[in-house]
């Protein structure tokens, strides 16, 4: 620009300026011709079909173009709004919060000002170019990855050509069930104490002998059958079964009270409903493994989901698919109506475990009457999921500073809750009080006890 301006003052520089302009134009044309249109790039996007809630996962773009060797590429991707970018690729390096690709939950660093984290950037080499990005979702449901915009820069940096690839890919964010494998392993060897379950013996003696199985490290050595050990040449343990083939129905409140978020750290953003679904599916997996028929229902103003009780490994998949997309409703749950609808759909006697919370003091009477009306038909367990924030405000731990007014209010609300729980306990239903993240163990214990009672 400056050189061109000088030609207004010095005519003899005009040929030089024209030459420079021609050289720049030639360089631009050469750079343009040597930069292939991005539409020539062969593109494959690889994402898992299913991921766990709050678990990090990899998305990989595989790009191929022989003419693009040595060229710089930027990839801008449309991804679901609830997804958080944990890390992305910039010229072969990982950029983003700390934590390796695929790490469960990734790091806890702050979010970048750009919600997308910026583009993935790479340089084409001899083989295909792979751009990896790590995402995490704190919301369950079915989501879609959208189109991609690719920008290819020429070797001289004078040209940038871009195009857009349309297309959608679906991904399902399901309950994470982080402890399911360990729960099933411990339940298979009847190590209930390791699951936080206090074992109770039936009146009149030991439970009923079922079968022998191979010893697993951690089994109670008092249950080793030494005669079978001598016959088979390997340690065998006695396995007991209280009762089999019972029916379990898991009813999960999906009303307004269940939208309260209860977790920080890697599970931050988890609602009471997330924890309830996680605990319910863990219990369902154990019950199915023990031979029970298991069904489930969700409710707000009435039943919104219903899965008929059934046996077998496939039933756990049906239950998970029915629950994974369910989100808290803006409406208050109508427990009485939900139990009436359950009675109309399922007439056989069953153990019904309700995961909900205590109503406000003015409505707890309605809740108690609903439980009393249903307890004559089914064996009811009402699991009231407490609010960790309220409990922490009422009972501060360590150096946490809670204003006196906040603590006084929290203590008053906790007192109302205790009175409400005592009222619900008179309904004939078994009443549990647990934090959402700690609900699995008391639910397993309650299920085991109701299973022993049978009938």
Layout: helices, strands, pairs:
Elements: H1 2-6, H2 14-34, E1 42-46, E2 50-52, E3 57-64, E4 72-77, E5 83-90, E6 93-95, E7 120-123, E8 129-137, E9 141-145, E10 148-153, E11 160-165, E12 169-174, H3 180-188, E13 208-214, H4 226-232, E14 236-241, E15 247-253, H5 272-289, E16 293-299, E17 303-310, H6 313-323, H7 335-345, E18 351-356, H8 364-375, E19 379-385, H9 388-394, H10 404-425, E20 430-434, H11 440-453
Parallel strand pairs: 2-12, 15-16, 15-18, 18-19, 19-20
Antiparallel strand pairs: 1-3, 3-8, 4-7, 4-10, 5-6, 5-8, 9-12, 10-11, 13-14, 16-17
Helix pairs in contact: 3-5, 5-6, 5-11, 7-8, 8-10, 9-10
Write up what this structure looks like.
This protein is an alpha/beta fold. It folds into 3 domains: 137 residues, Immunoglobulin-like; 29 residues, no CATH class; 212 residues, von Willebrand factor, type A domain (Rossmann fold, 3-Layer(aba) Sandwich), CATH 3.40.50.410. Helix content is 30%, strand content 27%. The protein is built from 11 helices and 20 strands. Strands 17-16-15-18-19-20 form a 6-stranded mixed sheet, sandwiched between helices. A hairpin with a 3-residue loop joins strand 16 and strand 17. Helix 3 packs parallel to helix 5, helix 7 runs parallel beside helix 8 and helix 8 runs parallel beside helix 10. The N and C termini lie far apart (93 Å).
